[in-house]
Amino acid sequence: MLLLLGPSALLGGALAFEYIGGLYPCEMCLWQRWALVAALALALLGWALGHARAVLALSALAVLVGAGIAGFHVGVEQQWWKGITECAATPIGGSTADILGAVLAAPIVRCDAIAWSLFGISMAGWNLVFSSLIGAVALWKLKAA
After folding, report:
1. What is the pTM of this model?
2. Which residue among 2, 66, 137, 144 is least packed, with the fewest CB closer than 10 Å?
3. 64: closest CA among 1, 128, 8?
4. What pLDDT does 115 receive?
5. Rounded to whole angstroms, how far apart are CA atoms 68 and 31?
6. Is the pLDDT of residue 35 over 90?
7. CA distance 32 to 51
């Protein structure tokens, strides 16, 4: 249940910050989301297979991969190291005016800038904390079972 509720809550929070709070994700934020989506999909598969421990362990590991990505992102935000990505854009078609309009309308989101924090911890930092706890507790519970 932890592997279903934990990633769902983290994804729900990220989507709420984006669609309700207007905080658009950077590229590394999206990577963290993909790890949570993978964890959630594996947890659903594990549940559908009758609590298959191997699949649930993979789900917990996916959550921990997301925690690792979040940890790297925190380091980029704190300027401890440089990020491995540049701003990315999807190809735009149409007239010059259409292209210019699309570029100017696109939000600028930097991976090395903290858009929001609570108690001095960024969203990536909170994702690191919660994903680490969820993944570690899930693996501990799977081992104990």
Report:
1. 0.79
2. 144
3. 128
4. 84
5. 11
6. yes
7. 25
Q: What does the alpha-carbon distance between residue 131 and residue 123 come to, in Å, rounded to a whole number?
A: 12
Residue with tokens 């659903």: 44
Tell me how crowded residue 139 is: count the other CB atoms within 10 A of its CB. 17
- Alpha helices per DSSP H over the chain: 2-19, 27-48, 53-77, 96-105, 123-144
* Residue 121 β-bridge partners: 118
What is the C-alpha separation between 51 and 138, in angstroms, rounded? Answer: 13
Reference 57, options 72, 74, 39; nearest CA is 39
Distance CA 89, CA 91 (A): 6
- Max Cα–Cα distance, the chain, nearest Å: 61
Contacts for 82 with CB less than 8 Å, ≥ 6 apart: 76
Question: What is the third-level CATH fold of 2-144?
Answer: Bromodomain-like (1.20.1550)
Judge whether 29 and 14 are in contact, CB under 8 Å: yes
Domain edges within the chain: 2-144
- CA 43/CA 128 separation, integer angstroms: 19
pLDDT, tens digit, for every residue of 47-81? 888 878 888 899 999 999 999 999 999 999 898 88
